[in-house]
Structure to design on (337 residues):
């Protein structure tokens, strides 16, 4: 972090800032120009509140040289992290595809879809039990019964299960029953939930918030990691922009950006980005081409009657065909699927 003082800043105000930083264990490298003084601050400045220094009257500007996140930062962890989900490695050379319905609707439905996506080549099963719906009158999920049905599908297929958590009071049950705990876009900045998830060691799938910047998203991962849970997988699912044609705008540039900034694995959800089933296929291919470590795709055996997100769900046959095509793209960029 660098503090640039205003021309003519008094020695007293500079010394006050120096004393404050030194008391917290930082070293100061002072550069005196003709008109201005600059402090280069040496130490882990991720813990400093940059705005605290900006309000000082003697300060012209304060700049960060390092990102405000540490545990998630590639600078301190140059090699890619591999997060294991019930033995399935996410973040290595092999791409992992999570597939399944938006919501668990019945035991039969989720077991049928699980069997179909397994044949198609999925390595994990998704399914919402607690659903974050925009309207309180929409289907809210089967809740704990949904978790039971997901477990039945796991038992039948051997696929690890991925499902969204909505509140901290369910953590114990999720640790017991779920293989990968999803934090949805709407809860990306639910900091009390993130802190509680930092206390466990189950892997967390952290979706990008509806209007979150890349830095805000990684800072949310940092919340979980700061508590000691380093098992975080990021998921780009599209962001709000002025465009109305798609449900969200898939930010493909976030994939190489996150890969540069962080060592964490990052996967892509083309379903919630597109909102339309026919766009899932090209977006999934693009995601693999730009270096995503995997995908999460909504698949339904009867999309016309789905209780949630049928319009963006692939039928199992299309999913299987897409998987075949993705294998070819993975091969070209030197990865396995
Ligand atoms: C979902 O995965 O079903 C979901 C609700 O996703 P998001 O949080 O990305 O909207
Ligand atoms: Mn959905």
């Amino acid at each position: 972090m660098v503090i640039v003082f205003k021309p003519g800043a008094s020695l007293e105000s500079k010394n006050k800032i120096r004393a404050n930083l030194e008391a917290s264990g930082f070293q100061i490298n002072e550069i005196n120009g003709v008109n201005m003084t600059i402090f280069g601050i040496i130490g882990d400045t991720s813990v400093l509140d940059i705005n605290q220094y900006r309000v000082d009257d003697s300060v012209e500007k304060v700049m960060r040289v390092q990102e405000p996140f540490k545990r998630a930062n590639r600078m301190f962890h140059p090699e890619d992290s591999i997060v294991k989900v019930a033995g399935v490695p996410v973040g290595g050379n092999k791409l992992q595809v999570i597939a399944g319905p938006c919501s668990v609707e019945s035991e039969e439905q989720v077991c049928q879809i699980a069997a179909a996506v397994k044949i198609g080549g999925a390595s994990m099963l998704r399914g919402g039990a607690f659903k974050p719906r925009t309207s309180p009158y929409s289907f809210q999920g089967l809740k704990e019964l949904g978790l039971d049905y997901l477990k039945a599908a796991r038992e039948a297929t051997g696929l690890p299960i991925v499902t969204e958590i909505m509140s901290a009071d369910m953590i114990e049950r999720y640790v017991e029953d779920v293989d990968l705990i999803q934090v949805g876009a709407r809860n990306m900045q639910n900091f009390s939930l993130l802190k509680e998830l930092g206390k466990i060691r189950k892997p967390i799938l952290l979706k990008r918030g509806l209007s979150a910047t890349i830095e805000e998203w990684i800072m949310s991962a940092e919340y979980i990691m700061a508590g000691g849970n380093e098992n975080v997988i990021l998921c780009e699912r599209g962001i709000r922009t002025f465009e109305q044609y798609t449900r969200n705008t898939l930010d493909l540039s976030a994939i190489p950006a996150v890969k540069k900034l962080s060592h964490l694995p990052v996967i892509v959800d083309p379903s919630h980005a597109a909102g339309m089933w026919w766009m899932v296929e090209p977006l999934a291919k693009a995601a693999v081409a730009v270096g995503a470590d995997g995908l999460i795709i909504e698949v339904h055996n009867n999309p016309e009657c789905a209780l949630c997100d049928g319009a963006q769900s692939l039928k199992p046959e299309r999913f299987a065909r897409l998987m075949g095509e993705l294998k070819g793209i993975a091969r070209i960029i030197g990865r396995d699927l």
